[in-house]
Design brief:
Blueprint: H1 7-18, H2 26-34, H3 41-62, H4 68-73, H5 78-110, H6 117-132, H7 136-150, H8 180-188, H9 207-235, H10 238-242, H11 247-252, H12 263-269, H13 271-293, H14 299-313, H15 320-355
Helix pairs in contact: 1-7, 1-9, 1-13, 2-8, 2-9, 3-9, 3-15, 5-6, 5-13, 5-14, 5-15, 6-13, 6-14, 7-13, 13-14
Length: 358
């Protein structure tokens, strides 16, 4: 295993994998579920994510950087690891394909109305396949390039400072028609993607900075979410946010340049880069897991099978709301994996360590 990832590349991978088109509807989700000043909910959920990253760091330290597959396979029989792998492959491959389908449907609404959604998805799948088969090192390089292409969009919020009004935030905190429990789960789905860091254990170049880079990656995501959501809460009223499907997309439409019309269409196109990183990371993780079931199989073929499976399943949800439901349920499954798998690995490592002869 010659490929090693610099902490900076790991940080970028985490940020790019977390950030996606869900940010377009995140201000509405916060307003609906956290009430007035719901943008602060981003900070609260980020703390939960950091706690989960801390649990993952325990696995990393106890396992001394070993692959999660090595940790499981040395202590668990194949009859147990096999269904775990199948679940991971299913959840990760479906999450990747639905992330693409969600992006394609939204993009179809604002552009290319007459183009079939599955044709657009096929084009993205081809790009994803070409990256997956190159391995995680090439994926990290591509993600870093995409990061510099998209990060400047955060500074677009400077256009709205003059229209930002603190009065719209109101003195109320988490008041109104709130749904904290269900809302927390929904907002948490905006942060999923960091959990794939346990697939990067054996690829870390600097073991001391590996976990720190994950924290920083999540911190960048949190900061960008806070900026976008705070501006939306100060630009729109609370009731407006609750009734807008994609507040951030509508916000971008207020930007006026003398040489471009409907700039929001162009800006939304940049989110294709974060979408590609997400589907590539989920597909690569599914491929690596699939390879543990059939170790002699060609990895390029496994990647093709995973993306073909996702493409076939993507035909079933044929509306944007249905895709949203799929992503919601897959987000819950990802939450279970993000919390449950590290706890299982810690249990295995503790038992294995205790079973060693003194």
């Amino acid at each position: 295993m010659n490929e090693k990832l610099h902490p900076f590349h790991i940080m970028i991978l985490i940020y790019m994998n977390q950030t996606g088109v869900v940010i377009m509807s995140l201000p509405r989700l916060l307003a609906e579920n956290f009430g007035y000043n719901g943008w602060l909910g981003v900070f609260l959920i980020s703390l939960v994510v950091n706690l989960n990253i801390f649990i993952i760091s325990i696995v990393y330290r106890l396992g001394k950087g070993k692959s999660i597959f090595q940790i499981m396979e040395r202590s668990l029989p194949r009859v147990i690891t096999f269904p775990i792998y199948v679940i991971l492959i299913g959840v990760w491959s479906l999450t990747g394909c639905m992330v693409i389908k969600n992006y394609v449907y939204i993009y179809q609404i604002i552009s290319y109305n007459t183009t079939h959604a599955m044709l657009l998805k096929l084009l993205i799948d081809i790009i994803a396949y070409l990256l997956v088969i190159k391995g995680i090192y090439t994926i990290s390089k591509a993600a870093t390039s995409f990061f510099w292409i998209t990060i400047w969009m955060v500074f677009l919020q400077l256009f709205f400072i003059k229209d930002f009004q603190w009065e719209r935030l109101t003195p109320f905190l988490f008041k109104g028609d709130t749904h904290f429990l269900t809302g927390s789960f929904l907002v948490f789905t905006a942060f999923i993607g960091y959990e794939l860091c346990f697939m990067l254990f054996p690829y870390a170049e600097n073991h001391k900075k590996f976990i720190k880079s994950i924290y920083i990656g999540n911190g960048i995501t949190t900061l960008s979410y806070l900026v976008f959501c705070l501006i939306c809460f100060g630009f729109y009223s609370y009731d407006q946010l609750r009734n807008m499907m994609y507040p951030l997309l509508d916000l971008l439409s207020y930007i006026r340049l003398p040489f471009i019309e409907r700039i929001e269409n162009l800006l939304f196109g940049f989110f294709l880069f974060t979408t590609i990183v997400s589907v590539v990371m989920y597909s690569w993780s599914a491929q690596e897991t699939f390879a543990r079931i059939v170790p002699k199989a060609n990895k390029k073929m496994l990647a093709l099978i995973i993306l073909a499976f996702g493409y076939a399943v993507a035909w079933f949800p044929d509306t944007l709301s249905e895709v949203g439901q799929w992503l919601q349920y897959l987000g819950y499954a990802e939450l279970g994996i993000a919390i449950g798998l590290p706890l299982l690995l810690i249990l295995i490592l503790v038992i294995h360590k205790g079973a060693k002869p003194s």
